[in-house]
Structure formats: C-alpha cells, structure tokens
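Appendix B, record 7
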Amino acid sequence: MSLRIAILTVSDRSARGERADLSGPALADAVQQLGWQIVRQAIAPDELQVLREQLSAWADSGEIDVILTSGGTGFAPRDVTPEATQSVIDRPAPGLGEAMRAAGLHITPHAMLSRAIAGIRKQTIIINLPGSPKGAVENFQVVAPVLPHAVELLREDPHSEAGHQRAVSS
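Structure tokens (predicted):
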C-alpha cells in the first residue's frame, strides 16, 4: 500500500530562512525509501495558530493519509507542536507516541523529554516527531510499520481486518 504523506517542519529559524531545514528532507528520504508519496512539504514557525491552520487544512483536504511534523516537541517555551496537534485532532493515538518514546529510551535518556503526540483528524493521522534529523527519522522508523494498516482501518478497507482473524482448526 502506498501512503500519501505530508511533512511539516516546525522551526522559527528555518521559517525565517536563517537555518536550512535538515529534518524535512531526511524524513522525505525515509518516506520515499518505503515507496510512499510525499504530497505536501512545508516549514512553519513555532506559532500555535499557524500550526493549527496548517494541520487542519492538510488533514481536511482528503489528499493526505499521514502528516509528520518535525520539531517543537520539547520543553522550550516556544515548543507548541503537541498543543497545536491536540487542538485539531478528533481522537488521540497514544500508542504511537508511547512506542516512539520507549524505543528512544534505548538510544538516549532524553527521549523521556519528548512531548510528542499523535492523533487522528477525520481520516488523517498526525504524528509529532523530534526536530533533529536523526531523531525524526529514528522515531518515524518506529511507527512506519503500522501506518499502512492504520490507514486501511481509517479508510474502512474491508481487507483491513483480514490479519486479525484467527485460523480455525478443522
């Protein structure tokens, strides 16, 4: 299954052109290695209303299966990506954030400082990732294996439940 992915880098400095966006391209490479399609990619400042509007517009377009955000998930005062995401999702998907933090703890104790969340808006999954290219890709790789099935479930694909059936012995 080919997924339609949008990548939103959240960084004041990158949005102002003061620093190159490294995490967005790193994520795009990881997504494309899976054969998935990048349908949108943008950079936004750490501004709550800007993030809300961008996430809502992309999720409501019907053209995107998964939105990956990179950045704004830490403890700094301007890190508001989780709050923006929380304000636009219909339903949380806590297992994705929990899995990323659990996997990250095997790499660095700083993983427990991540405030990243994930959730669903209509038929789009929104996942917050760290701002560093390495951290963004590592966290993406944790959740990537379940995304095709999650999208099938959201699309109410009749085949999505096939893997959940137990074999009946005769």
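Remarks on this record: Strands lie at 4-10, 37-44, 66-70, 91-92, 118-121, 124-129. The domain at 4-157 is CATH 3.40.980.10 (Molybdenum Cofactor Biosythetic Enzyme; Chain A).
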